[in-house]
Design goal:
Number of helices of chain B: 2
CATH architecture of the largest domain in chain A: 2-Layer Sandwich
CATH superfamily of the largest domain in chain A: Aldehyde oxidase/xanthine dehydrogenase, molybdopterin binding domain
Oligomer: heterodimer
Strand content of chain A: 25-35%
Mean pLDDT of chain A: 96
Order of helices and strands of chain B: EHEHEEE
Radius of gyration of chain B: 12 Å
Distance between the termini of chain B: 38 Å
Number of domains of chain A: 3
Largest interface: A-B, 45 and 19 residues
CATH class of chain B: Alpha Beta
CATH topology of the largest domain in chain A: Aldehyde Oxidoreductase, domain 4
Low-confidence stretches of chain A: none
Number of helices of chain A: 20
Number of domains of chain B: 1
Structural class of chain A: alpha+beta
Shape of chain A: globular
Largest sheet of chain B: 5 strands, mixed
Distance between the termini of chain A: 57 Å
CATH superfamily of chain B: Beta-grasp domain
Radius of gyration of chain A: 27 Å
CATH class of the largest domain in chain A: Alpha Beta
Helix content of chain B: 10-25%
CATH architecture of chain B: Roll
Strand order of the largest sheet of chain B: 2-1-5-3-4
């Protein structure tokens, strides 16, 4: 515990031994394909599949008429058609399914399906979608969700402010870009009537229910395996191809495989919500924050998915990790025809953090305060009310993260290093911080259920259902179990992501698994220790207690394997369950709001900007997360490095470009990702604020380590060049243009 | 048998409350409880249930003193 430990899944992933679900194949297997919409917004007048069905090698062609349950899916609001009946709302909408003997025949069959459309005006901007005469994406209108949160009276707050900044920000649509696209296999077992589905996911148990709802089948006839998965970042939280595969295998009675190519994955899959944000922030001349006001338009695209909860979290984090006496936070999640957006690492806070953290830097400059000192002055502490008037009663290491940043060489040397760059390449350092809500929030049961069993070899199997999506949770789970069971980590096997095998430990999202599943595993492990003591007392004379991995009674000692073998002779198994329900806030605003457990993070970034080419290079990122107790510091460093890369890319590289609802760059040749050549040095300094409600004091950091990077880099660019950006991404062209405009003006 | 029922999300709106102390016939299953409270059958396929802190199937029979939580897995993040 607390030591850097090699990941339990490292060898298989690095050597290629591990087979992902999109690698699976079965004899007599068909290939599945999806016919996607031809227009981003159109009525469907006619669908004719007769020519496709007649093509040799085609096993079946399905339309909405073949969906016998609810022809809709969606985690929070089931408004997305499985197969569209009368309207398409984005280019990824599914209109028909094909299963054929080969991929080539399947592709030809798609071309043979005739669909007559009546194109409709495209809604491509969330603010325009709000206008009363905007074309309707859904019959009910274009508003998915609106919310207003806050406390106090911002009029009073701004009246008492000596300095105020107001600024509009814009963040872009962002692709998860997981390396393994959506892919998998389904197989119908005629003997049992069970449909088996293997598709990489973030919550197999909920996929099972979404499939049941869409097909009308009994959930006990649906077996889902969601793990291993080759990356997700939130993009496999929602249903992807599971229902399609289930329908195809049931219709054909043969195994069916489907793997999306990158273009189809980018067009059809969820995205990070683009947001337009108006911020107004006021403070006194000594730097004390007085008021934060924001109005956010979130582009949720064609369907709901988790658009409402994302907006809620954007608002919850919009005033940053600071104490603010007055706040008025308003948001609107709007339907458009721009793809569809959903869960993505940071979940709305990534976007609102850009706004508040750049505003704080602007205020710090106006006042003449060091940006870190400004943040230190206002850093929230345990016991205070957050900006949405919710008491922060869990652990908070926010101030410590800022103190470490302040004392860092990166920060202390910034002016000297900047001054040393007198040529066309400018140097700058920026800082930003954030507060990341953990867990699903009040009003949404956030449970984790696990089982631990003792094997006859004296080793342990931990049966839990959450999925390893690259965050390293399986390793931390093994560490926690091994700590309680007094055994080497190699003696603990963690099962995951199989609705038949594991207990339902909830979803792999919301940075929740170390906390919630970890607690459940700890309870199960402790219960197993008790079960071993009781069994030993029943079967062997003496007063047995568990000590350092074995049972002892005076000088006598029993190994766990002895107990397991004895139990086996009696036809019994020694096992135990553990159950944990996430703690909740003291008051409830709406489903999932507010939260009560938070991670905090400060990041410092240094950049070099070539003012002759506009190229921005991030040199170094210092990541300082407050994660509670660090279960596996090596795992945290890995998350910090990945988060730094993804956050840096959010500022400088990636943008899903659309025009009138059509994707302009749905391939990695044109959707530019950073490579190892672009990676900065990433250093991590962990703040461990012990969280009392976790067995080992841990919280979660999966998301927080990628959130403040973006505004830290934007602030660093300003420090280097004097140019402030309020729109992401910042491309070399934009940098060059802005630099030249600034100098021409000067 | 006496059972405490806690509902979440859409079910709160449908039933007009969060918590209910119920007096039911012995041997009712979770599914029968849900339907008996007026939650439409179409919601059942996307419903989870926790009884006495253990996740159970909807066919789980209830007993006196059980603490039942019923919800739709609408969370994310």
């Amino acid at each position: 515990m607390g030591k850097p430990v090699l990941r339990v899944d490292a060898r298989g992933k690095v050597t290629g031994e591990l087979k992902y679900l999109s690698d699976l194949s079965f004899p007599d297997m068909l290939w599945g394909r999806v016919l996607r919409a031809a227009y981003p917004h159109a009525l469907i007048k006619r669908i004719d599949t007769s020519k496709a069905k007649a093509l040799p090698g085609v096993a079946c062609v399905l339309t909405h008429k073949d969906v016998h349950g609810l022809n809709r899916f969606g985690i929070a609001v089931p408004d997305m058609p499985v197969l569209c009946e009368d309207k398409v709302r984005y280019l990824g909408d599914a209109v028909a399914l094909v299963a054929a003997e080969t991929k080539e025949v399947a592709a030809r069959a798609l071309e043979q399906i005739e669909v007559d459309y009546e194109p409709l005006p495209v809604v491509d901007d969330p603010e325009k979608a709000f206008e009363p005469d905007a074309p309707k994406v859904h019959e009910k209108g274009n508003v998915l969700w609106e919310n207003t949160l806050g406390k106090g009276d911002v009029k009073v707050g701004f009246a008492e402010s000596d300095f105020i900044v107001e600024q509009k920000f814009s963040t872009q649509m962002f692709e998860h870009a997981f390396l393994e696209t959506e892919g998998g296999v389904a197989k119908y077992d005629a003997d049992t009537g069970i449909v088996h589905i293997w598709v990489g996911s973030q919550y197999a148990y909920r996929d099972q229910l979404q499939i049941a709802r869409a097909t009308g089948w009994d959930r006990d006839k649906i077996h889902v395996v969601g793990s291993p998965v080759g990356g997700a970042f939130g993009g496999k939280d929602e249903i992807t191809i599971q229902i399609y595969l289930a329908l195809l295998t049931y219709a054909t009675r043969r195994p069916v495989k489907m793997v999306l190519n990158r273009t189809e994955s980018i067009i059809s899959g969820t995205k990070r919500h683009p947001m337009k944000m108006d911020f107004k922030v006021g403070c006194k001349k000594d730097g004390t924050l007085q008021a934060v006001e924001t109005n956010i338009f979130s582009d949720t695209g064609a369907y709901a998915s988790l658009g409402g909860p994302v907006l809620n979290l954007a608002l919850e984090g919009a005033s940053g990790p600071y104490f603010v006496p007055h706040a008025h936070l308003v948001g609107h999640a709007m339907y458009t025809n721009n793809g569809f957006s959903g869960a993505f690492r940071g979940f709305g806070t990534t976007q609102s953090c850009v706004g508040i953290e750049i505003c704080l830097d602007m205020l710090a400059e106006k006042i003449g305060l060091d940006p870190i000192d400004f943040r230190l002055k206002n850093a929230i502490h345990r016991g205070q009310q957050t900006a949405i008037d919710n008491k922060l009663f869990t652990s908070c290491g926010m101030e410590e993260t800022l103190q470490i940043a302040k004392q860092s060489d990166l920060w202390k040397q910034r002016e000297a290093r900047k001054a040393a760059h007198t040529g066309p390449v400018k140097y700058g350092v920026g800082v930003a911080s954030e507060i990341q809500a953990l867990g699903l929030g009040i009003g949404i049961p956030d449970y984790a259920h696990t089982r631990v069993e003792l094997t006859e070899e004296g080793k342990y199997i931990v049966r839990q259902g959450s999925i390893e999506i690259g965050q390293g949770n399986l390793t931390a789970f093994a560490q926690m179990a091994a700590e309680i069971l007094g055994c080497p980590i190699e003696h603990v096997t963690i099962t995951h992501g199989d609705t038949d095998d594991a207990a339902d430990s909830g979803t792999s999202t919301a940075s929740r698994t170390i906390y919630a599943v970890g607690n459940s595993i700890s309870r199960a492990s402790k219960n197993l220790v008790k079960a071993m003591e009781i069994f030993a007392g029943e079967q062997f004379p003496g007063e047995w207690r568990f000590e350092r991995g074995a049972l002892v009674s005076g000088p006598e000692r029993l190994e766990p394997a002895d107990l397991a073998r004895k139990a086996a002779t009696l036809g019994r198994k020694i096992e135990a369950e553990g159950f944990f329900k996430h703690i909740e806030a003291e008051k409830e605003y709406t489903d999932g709001l507010p939260h009560c457990l938070y991670a905090f993070c400060t990041q410092v970034a240094s950049v070099k900007v070539d003012t002759e080419t506009g190229i921005i290079r991030v040199e170094e990122i210092l990541t300082i997360p407050d994660c509670g107790r660090a279960i596996n510091p090596q795992g945290i460093e890995g998350q910090a490095e990945g988060g730094a890369a993804q956050g840096m890319s959010y500022v400088l590289f990636e943008e899903v470009k659309l025009h009138q609802g059509r994707f302009l760059n749905p391939r990695f040749a044109t959707y530019i990702l950073p490579t190892t050549m672009d990676m900065p040095r990433v250093n991590t300094r962990i703040v461990e604020s012990w969280e009392d409600t976790h067995e080992f004091g841990a919280k979660g950091i999966a998301e927080t380590v990628m959130v403040p990077v973006a505004p830290a880099i934007v602030n660093a660019i300003y420090h280097a060049t004097g140019v402030r950006f309020f729109e992401l991404p910042i491309t070399p062209e934009k940098m060059l243009r802005a630099w030249r405009e600034k100098h021409n003006a000067e | 048998m006496k059972v405490q029922l806690t509902v979440y999300g859409e079910f709160r709106r449908l039933l007009g409350g969060k918590r209910f102390e119920l007096d039911l016939d012995n041997g009712l299953t979770v599914q029968q409880l849900i339907l008996g409270q007026g939650i439409p059958e179409e919601h059942l396929s996307y419903t989870m249930a926790i009884v006495n802190e253990r996740k159970v199937g909807l066919e789980e029979p209830l007993k006196d003193g059980d603490n039942v939580e019923v919800f739709q897995p609408v969370g994310g993040g």
